[in-house]
Design a protein that fits this description.
By secondary structure, this protein is of the alpha/beta class. It folds into two domains: about 10-190 and about 240-265, NAD(P)-binding Rossmann-like Domain (Rossmann fold); about 190-240, no CATH class. Helices cover about 45% and strands about 15% of the residues. It contains eight helices and seven strands; from the N terminus they run βαβαβαβαβαβαααβ. Strands 3-2-1-4-5-6-7 form a seven-stranded parallel beta sheet, sandwiched between helices. Strand 5 (about 140-145), helix 5 and strand 6 form a beta-alpha-beta unit. It is globular. The protein binds nicotinamide-adenine-dinucleotide (NAD). Nicotinamide-adenine-dinucleotide binds near residues 18, 39, 64, 92 and 146.
Length: about 270
């Protein structure tokens, strides 16, 4: 099997950083042109520059996925730039409002923003892109959930709930889009050392946490804490990377995955098996 995305057009929200950037590079590596969609202009430009250096085309669209008008503008701009959207990856996500890692429990603002970005953001962009995909009877939508969707937790209940909701939405949207030959799936990444996880580790070190379950981890610095955490909670003992997530995204975006829809697939070294 050779994944071939030659001349496909992919829109990737959250493409300015971490996992989203890894997905952009993986899709471009298989031949796709990419719309890097994010509110972080500088990060989006870095991703776009990396893609352009590989010979694929990359556009940048500033978007706030929490806003339906902004989501509609993203789709219109992508169509303006490339004439079609074959693939949509909803990766943009947060754990809370500004400086969330300094709070031991989520505030109302944390709850609201997490639901607005992680759940409504996915819905907003998906519904904005859906008419185009239905009309073409072609499309691959990939939602980035999390293994946090698989198990509640005392630490970040708002985040866990938002990601469980993304899995549920993925199933609902898959059923809505199935008659149009559009596939909708989710990926549940495990533990990745990205800016988001750096905040999680800082919060865990400050307040103690069920994240690590091991009190001696709290005396360690950020990256070292993360490595010990990975070794203690991931059965295969290794961290996940944006490249790992990008590889599954590329497969789900390909026509080889034409009969897979409504699924949520863990990429987590065996941390969760549901
Ligand atoms: N890092 C992990 O271990 C991990 C694990 C499981 C799932 N995830 C999920 O993967 C996705 C990416 O996470 P990451 O670790 O790469 O985080 P990150 O913080 O590195 O990247 C998130 C990106 O989303 C963008 N974003 C945030 N709010 C936005 C908005 N309203 N509109 C547009 N863009 C917005 C940010 O600007 C940023 O570029 C998230 O959905 C996250 O929940 C991460």
């Amino acid at each position: 099997m050779m994944i071939d995305l030659t001349d496909k057009v992919a829109v990737v929200t959250g493409g300015a950083s971490g996992i989203g950037r890894g997905i952009c590079k993986a899709l471009a590596g298989q031949g796709a042109d990419i719309v890097v969609a994010d509110m972080n202009a500088q990060g989006a430009k870095s991703t776009a520059d990396e893609i352009a250096a590989t010979g694929r085309k990359a556009g940048i669209v500033d978007v706030d996925v929490t806003d339906r008008d902004s989501a509609a503008h993203l789709v219109a701009e992508a169509l303006h730039l490339f004439g079609k959207i074959d693939i949509l990856v909803n990766d943009a996500g947060v754990i809370g409002a500004a400086e969330w890692w300094k709070r031991p429990t989520p505030s109302d603002d944390d709850w609201d923003l997490v639901m607005a970005v992680n759940l409504r953001g996915v819905v907003n962009v998906s519904e904005a892109a859906a008419p185009h995909m239905k009309e073409r009877r072609y499309g691959k939508i990939i939602n980035i959930a999390s293994i946090a969707a698989r198990q509640g937790g005392a630490d970040i209940p708002h985040y866990n709930a938002s990601k469980a909701a993304v899995v549920s939405w993925t199933q609902s949207h898959a059923l809505q889009m199935a008659p149009y030959d559009v596939n909708v799936n989710a990926i549940c990444p495990g533990l990745l050392w990205t800016p988001m996880f750096e905040g999680l580790v800082e919060r865990s070190i400050s307040f103690g946490s069920t994240l690590g379950t091991n009190p001696e981890l709290r005396d360690l610095g950020g990256r070292e804490y993360f490595e010990k955490l990975v070794a203690s909670v991931i059965p295969m003992g290794k961290e996940q990377t944006p490249e790992d997530i990008g590889k599954l995204a590329a497969f789900l975006a390909s026509d080889d995955a034409h009969n897979i829809t409504g699924q949520a697939i863990n990429v987590d070294g065996g941390r969760r098996m549901n």
